[in-house]
Amino acid sequence: MDAVSEDAAEIAGRFLSARRRAAGLDDYPGPFPATLDEAYRIQDAAIAAWGKQVVGWKVGRINPPLAERYGADRLAGPIFAAIAAADGIPEMPVFTEGFVAGEAEFLLRIGRPPPADRHRFTLDEAADLIDAVHVGIEVASSPLGAINRLGPVAVISDFGNNNGLVVGPAIADWRASGFEQWRVTTRIDGAEVGTGRATSFPDGAIGAARFLFELMARRRIALAPGQWISSGAVSGVHEAAAGHAIEASFGDRYTVKCSLKAARPDDA
Predict the structure, then answer these.
(1) 155 DSSP assignment
(2) Angle at CA of residue 66, ends 150 and 96, nearest 5°
(3) Domain 3-267 class in CATH
(4) Is the Cβ–Cβ distance between 186 and 238 less than 8 Å?
(5) Buried/exposed code over 123-146 (b: 16+ C-beta within 10 A; e: otherwise)
(6) Which residues on adjacent β-strands are paired with residue 139?
(7) How far is the C-alpha of 130 from the C-alpha of 128, rounded, in Å?
(8) How far is the C-alpha of 203 from the C-alpha of 207, rounded, in Å?
(9) d(Cα 22, Cα 92) in Å, to the nearest integer?
């Protein structure tokens, strides 16, 4: 194992140890990656060591000027828990000594995996691989409290700063619905904390799917039917805490709710 691989495995192990203990991290746990590729190597090592089924992928934004620095305007990380919101208000665990946020997102379900030999997709080609779009909430949480302030390489290193997904209702006739133009609002404990539209993202929510398909082709990671793509925080990233109630409204059509609870070691 070369030095880069050794560093990646050690950093991944420290993140995973903190997640298993539901503990916090005061600092980035090792040498700071210089590139996104180095950060994805840490993520790869963490996925392998975690040993759990990947049920989806979150896609997040990289904003200027960091987008120019790293040569990408999005990043990705694995999702290991997707909870249906149909039967009440799910309680979602978060790292109380780390970072916590709730994000309103459109969730795209993969219907057909991208062809193994394809590395580029048009928006229409990406959309053709999606068989459903749902509304939902991404629970962003990491043991590293400074994860977002440290930037994209830190976020990528620890599962994309994801700790679960709340899956709400499916959008009927999603391709004709104009969902990317809907006004999306997030509330925490009843107070509005942000609004937005998916059209403010580069190429909208479908652009997130295209990005993921192309990234996974480069990383040689196979995607599977039924996996979710959490396409980005439409109304922004809103920091929260255990005990808070998160509500995401999608136009006047759908509402998804969850509550946040302190993670425990047996939640890992």
Answers:
(1) H
(2) 25
(3) alpha beta
(4) yes
(5) eebbbebbeebbbbbbbbbbbbbe
(6) 102
(7) 6
(8) 5
(9) 13
Q: Are 144 and 159 in contact (CB under 8 A)?
A: no
Residue 228: which of 142, 61, 110, 89 has the closest Cα? 110
**What pTM did the predictor assign?**
0.95
The secondary structure of the chain in percent helix, strand, coil, rounded to multiples of 5, reads: 30, 30, 35
β 91-94/254-262 pair status: parallel
Q: Tens digit of pLDDT for each residue in 177-213?
A: 999 999 999 999 999 999 999 999 999 999 999 999 9
pLDDT band at 268 (very low <50, low <70, confident <90, very high): low
pLDDT reading at 142 higher than 70: yes
Residues counted in the chain: 268
* Residue appearing with tokens 């090792």: 30
Question: For residue 158, what are its two tokens?
Answer: 């620890």
pLDDT digits over 77-135, tens only?
Answer: 999 999 998 768 999 999 999 999 999 999 999 999 999 889 999 999 999 999 999 99
Give domain limits for the chain.
Answer: 3-267
